[in-house]
Amino acid sequence: MAEQGPMAIAMRLRNQLQSVYKLDPLRNEEEVKLKIKDLNEHIVCYLCAGYFIDATTITECLHTFCKSCIVKYLQTSKYCPMCNIKIHETQPLLNLKLDRVMQDIVYKLVPGLQESEDKRIKEFYQSRGLERVVQPSGEDSLPDAKGLPFTSFDHSKAHFYRYDEQVSLCLERQSSSMAEKKDKTKLTLQQKFVRCSVRAEVRHLRKVLCHRLNVEKHQVSLSFKTFYPEKVGCG
Questions:
Q1: Percentage of the chain surpassing pLDDT 90?
Q2: How far apart (Å, rounded) are the C-alpha atoms in residues 74 and 80?
Q3: Which among 70, 99, 177, 207 is most buried, taking Cβ atoms within 10 Å?
Q4: In sequence order, which residues have a C-beta less than 8 Å from that of residue 194 and are 6 or more positions away?
Q5: Which of 109, 82, 115, 80 is nearest to 95 (CA)?
Q6: How many whole angstroms separate alpha carbon 224 and alpha carbon 205?
Q7: Bigger pLDDT: 104 or 24?
Q8: Domain named RING-type: which ranges (predicted)?
């Protein structure tokens, strides 16, 4: 079985950087600039020669392709198009798995790709007067008729932010403020950790705090620390 999982790919990229650019990206603190063509072999589909869309990995050999490409290919074959390993004796689609980690990497590396794909899908459904399939809540592993999990959903009706990359935040109350001296009422958060989409904004967090603390919007002021401890922003 070939080792082409996310960790193996990351280590391979690291080794290439060391050999080509004479540096270790995991230890070097300087900004590393790469040409996208240097990474293409890791993020381009072997079947269509385009960047991965709905990246899907064969569990038997860990080779990755676009979902639509590999599903179409396996209609006439039971073998991996790259290494020729037999995927499954009778139902090769059962040994396919959506690779969300790889897809996140591709969207981050290729500017505008995600927006372009979302626009293309939206136009496809609108031109045919169809509604996009809404994935049932809590059923991420529910297969469709082809044996693969749903990946399309109606952005106008579904809470699609939950499909984004997630970040974890810690919300803590600041002490020794003038407002605290005037208002002696102690407000405490039962749950100070929040997990949300990378697209969440400060105003969304303020809404969460207002709801949890049962206070008005003007009573909540947020300050946040960036990656640089000396810089503090307010919202």
A1: 21
A2: 8
A3: 70
A4: 168, 169, 170, 171, 205, 208
A5: 80
A6: 11
A7: 104
A8: 45-84
| 212 closest CA partner among 189, 180, 235 | 189
Contact 46, 83 (CB under 8 A): no
Fold for the domain defined by 164-234 = Ubiquitin-like (UB roll) (3.10.20)
pLDDT digits (tens, 9 = 90+) for 111-130: 899 899 989 988 988 888 88
Average pLDDT over residues 202-231: 73
- State how far the alpha carbon of 130 is from the alpha carbons of 124, 126, 134, 154, 157, in Å: 9, 6, 12, 10, 14
